[in-house]
Design a protein that fits this description.
This is Cbb3-type cytochrome oxidase assembly protein CcoS. With 63 residues, the protein is mainly α. It has two helices and no strands.
């Protein structure tokens, strides 16, 4: 029974911290755009690879 006097206030502090963290996330805009991140993986943002041009020899040799 004595441990409940210790554990209940700690649980209330954890719940209060979780609620405060949740409201901070909502107010700072963490949940504003939920669709973009889910669609980002579907589209390739990389540019097309450029073709490499081999350097031509400058001493007149043909390869």
């Amino acid at each position: 029974m004595d441990s409940l006097y210790f554990l209940i206030p700690i649980a209330i502090l954890f719940i209060g911290a979780a609620v405060k963290l949740y409201f901070w996330a909502v107010n700072s805009g963490q949940y504003d755009d939920l669709e973009t991140e889910g669609r980002r993986i579907l589209f390739d943002d990389d540019e097309a690879p450029r073709e490499r041009t081999e350097a031509r020899p400058t001493d007149g040799e043909d390869r």
